[in-house]
Specification:
Elements: H1 5-8, E1 9-11, E2 14-16, H2 20-30, E3 39-42, E4 45-46, E5 53-56, E6 59-62, H3 79-100, H4 105-118, H5 127-137, H6 140-143, H7 149-157, H8 160-163, E7 173-174, E8 181-186, E9 189-195, E10 201-206
Parallel strand pairs: 3-6
Antiparallel strand pairs: 1-4, 2-3, 5-6, 7-8, 8-9, 9-10
Helix pairs in contact: 3-5
Length: about 210
């Protein structure tokens, strides 16, 4: 959501970078992590109580606590992190839209307002929102899928962030020759899962 900051945000909350757990999905979708130009303000308070997040330029304000941005294992059961990550990815889509207007608050603001009016004042039909909702669902294979979530579990357990870095794709690839084997590319190599029919997977990495 793009709105006048002074009208909606009562308290900007605590400024933070994205967490490493968030970056797992942010980099897979947008190709960025710990972007110095993007800041997230947790525990923000809004004029309208039901507001979950507001994006203004390159700043994201959310009522969520930062603890909701840290994943617990197994990821497939961490509903709070899954939903908070989707919210972040949605708001990041607005940051990217803002940057596409050369970082101009006024240019993006007027474009958003015009699109909102043309959509019949329907938030969900506004093209900027349609794109943001589409973006937040593009990581579902890694964020919610029974196999895909185990890539992050293995990434955390094996400290692959130091060797592999972050994922570069939002979907894993199935092996054509080995049933139950899956691959996911990372910045400095790839990860492989060998999964049993029970759903239990063993991960290995290749740098």
């Amino acid at each position: 959501m793009f709105s006048d900051l002074g009208l909606l945000v009562l308290n900007a909350g605590n400024e933070q970078e994205t967490t490493a757990d968030q970056d797992f999905f942010v980099n897979a979708l947008y190709g960025i992590s710990h972007d110095a130009d993007i800041r997230v303000y947790y525990n923000s308070r809004f004029a309208f109580g039901e507001t979950a997040a507001v994006t203004y330029g390159n700043r994201i304000y959310t009522s969520l606590h930062r603890s909701s941005m840290l994943a617990r294992s197994p990821l497939r059961r961490d509903y709070v992190f899954q939903q908070s990550t989707k919210l972040l990815l949605h708001e990041l889509a607005h940051v990217m839209q803002y940057k596409a207007f050369n970082g101009s608050d006024s240019a993006f603001g007027w474009a958003y307002l015009k699109a909102y009016c043309n959509a019949g004042f329907d938030y969900f039909q506004t093209p900027f929102e349609v794109e943001a909702f589409r973006k937040q669902e593009q990581v579902n294979k890694l964020l919610e899928d029974e196999v895909g979530t185990q890539f992050m579990d293995q990434w955390k357990w094996n400290f692959w962030v130091t060797t592999l870095g972050l994922p570069t794709r939002t979907e894993y690839v199935k092996s054509r020759n080995q049933p139950g084997r899956y691959f996911l590319p990372f910045q400095r190599g790839s990860a492989m899962l060998d999964c049993k029919p029970t759903g239990e997977c063993v991960g290995t990495s290749e740098v």
